[in-house]
Amino acid sequence: MTQCYYKSDYYVNCLDFHPAGNILTCGSINGDIEIFKLDELKNELVKEWSNSTTHSNSVRISTFSSSGSEIMSASADKTVAVTDVDLNKVKWVGKGHKDPVNSACYINDNLIITGDDEGEIRIWDNRIKSKAVSVIKEFEDCITDLLIKGNEFLVTCGDQIGCFDAKKYKMKAISDNTEHEFLTMSLVKDGKKVLCGTATGSICLFSYGYWGDFNDIIPVNKETVNKIVKLNEDVVCTCGDDGEVYVVDVLPNRVIGKLKDFKGSNDVKSTDSITINDNKTLIAFLVNFEYIHITDTTEVEKLVRNEETNFFDEI
């Protein structure tokens, strides 16, 4: 069973798996972007390279392009950048945000969406100069997450979720005020359901295209749901400020259980930025923002199998 801890020299904000290998990128509070590779024989993370020139302040987003050849990063220094993975060289930098950039995602390998701490959204084309191709000012609070689906992208800000046209960059719909502060999103059920993790430890479920109000809510913990990662179309894993990693079933809605093997003798106070590799065999997440932890999905699969057995026993 894979259990691997790596202690970073600086607090780490974000993680992402390479789309075709057991390679991780992370962004640190000091502005570094780093790449790690899992040595499966030694069961340890090996640092491949570090880049301290792309950003001058905390890196909040560091994610691979769909090909894995580039890393897109966004920072509290108010910029978004693209770095060549093989060359460890900055290819493009987007400047224009007046406030720290908090969230970012690809529309495709050329178009990028960013959202900052004061609600401004910008769309960039990394083939051209650093000026944004569009600026959206529909919000006045921190953009907590961005997610692309086909020709639309979703935005969470405060207690609302908005849906935008990804070609015209115009708002199509926005939810009512929900009294739940949304921190993160994930698509499940073949894109038919949107999960929103909240600052009060629950997951709100929206039916895609019906943005007035959420349909259901899953209580997960008493703290926060900081990040959600999809194991399959029915099961997700969450991390949060209570230091746990939960396995959650969606429709029927229930918490299946939580991971225990990763803790060992460590004092785990928080988990964050959970991500899963391309073949769904490894999960990585941050522990206390200073440790990168990788575990295989054996424990998750065991919890899911036990839940399915119990379900059919009750029929």
From TrEMBL:
<dbReference type="InterPro" id="IPR001680">
    <property type="entry name" value="WD40_rpt"/>
</dbReference>
<protein>
    <submittedName>
        <fullName>Uncharacterized protein</fullName>
    </submittedName>
</protein>
<dbReference type="Pfam" id="PF24796">
    <property type="entry name" value="WDR55"/>
</dbReference>
<feature type="repeat" description="WD">
    <location>
        <begin position="94"/>
        <end position="125"/>
    </location>
</feature>
<comment type="similarity">
    <text>Belongs to the WD repeat WDR55 family.</text>
</comment>
<keyword id="KW-0677">Repeat</keyword>
<dbReference type="InterPro" id="IPR036322">
    <property type="entry name" value="WD40_repeat_dom_sf"/>
</dbReference>
<dbReference type="InterPro" id="IPR015943">
    <property type="entry name" value="WD40/YVTN_repeat-like_dom_sf"/>
</dbReference>
<dbReference type="InterPro" id="IPR050505">
    <property type="entry name" value="WDR55/POC1"/>
</dbReference>
<keyword id="KW-0853">WD repeat</keyword>
